[in-house]
Amino acid sequence: MGNPLNLDLARVFFSLPLGRAKEISARVAGAVLTQASGGRELLGEKGHEVLRDALAQEFPRLSVNDLFSVAEHVGGSSHMLATVEWRNAGHRPGDTPEIGLSTLEGGLLIQLHATPESLPAQLRAAEWADHAMLYKHRFMRPPNPTKNALRRSAKMHREHQQSLYDYWQELENDPG
């Protein structure tokens, strides 16, 4: 899978010991949920700012840009976990999953514990590369993506979501 865009994965995957990562995840998630009005806000700019501020309490040496980047990736990982939970609960693909306490903690745990060489890091790098290819480095979808490209991308995203979810479940079951 690799890292096709040569992104600096060490800036968003912290390689902390599992026990410490779990403690920090619980503290940050608790702080975010008391300050944000519901989990869906985490997907918006204000929610990322609240998350960034909570992360700044734990990692005061990180720059504002690095904190915002980590918050963005925690939101992405949390959204992937929430999507699998919603899919497993029988929701339809068009439904918008909401990030709750457990998936927020899971997204934080993944970003804080995983190494830049780990499966989650490689999955995220592949997601970024696919987004860059499909969206041509733009935030909005290109006007005419092919149906095959969209299908391939959707299938890959579902597989990556499930792999990330399985990785999270392994971490949750590890007493570390």
Q: Quick recap of the structure?
A:
The protein has helices spanning 18-35, 45-58, 64-88, 101-113, 119-135, 147-173. The chain is mostly helical and 176 residues long. The chain has one domain.
Shape: globular
Helix content: 55-70%
Report mean pLDDT, rounded to a whole number. Answer: 84
Per DSSP E runs of 2 or more residues, the count of β-strands stands at 0
**Largest sheet, described in full?**
none
C-alpha-based Rg, rounded: 16 Å
The helix/strand order is HHHHHH
Euclidean distance between termini CA atoms: 28 Å
Identify low-pLDDT runs: none
Helix/sheet category: mainly alpha
SS field, number of helical segments:
6
Q: What amount of the residues lies in strands? A: under 5%
Estimate nothing, just give the exact number of structural domains. 1
Model description:
This protein has 176 residues and is mainly alpha-helical. The chain has one domain (11-173). Helices cover 65% and strands 0% of the residues. The chain has helices at residues 18-35, 45-58, 64-88, 101-113, 119-135, 147-173. It is globular and about 45 Å long. The model has no long low-confidence stretch (mean pLDDT 84).
